[in-house]
Amino acid sequence: MNRAYLKSVYEEVRDLVALTARQRELFEAWLYTERTFAQLAIQYGVNRSTVFRAVERAAQYVEWTARRLDAFRKAATH
Question: Could you report how far apart the first and last alpha carbons of the chain are, in Å?
Fold first, then answer.
């Protein structure tokens, strides 16, 4: 996952993307603190794979929302 790319996309769709509270919390912790999945797992008291799955799903939702927003903008200009 490209953290810099996801950060820029997330900044654009933050208020639109439908994430659970836990997904948002873990995704933002990973995105803004530069911590690894293992470090976040220790901090939150969960397995590393739990953090990875939450961040991966959040990233997918962020990218999906960004694509939908882009399509909507393109449709609105035609």
Answer: 33
**Dist CA 29 CA 3 (whole Å):** 12
Contacts of 57 (CB under 8 A, 6+ apart): 23
C-alpha span between 30 and 68 (Å, rounded): 24
Residue type for 55, please? V
Q: Is the pLDDT assigned to residue 67 strictly greater than 90?
A: yes
SS3 13: helix
pLDDT digit string, tens, across residues 3-61? 999 999 999 999 999 999 999 999 999 999 989 999 999 999 999 999 999 999 999 99
| Predicted local confidence at residue 50, as pLDDT | 97
Query: Distance (Å, rounded) from C-alpha 3 to C-alpha 64?
Result: 16
Number of H helices, E strands in the chain: 4, 0
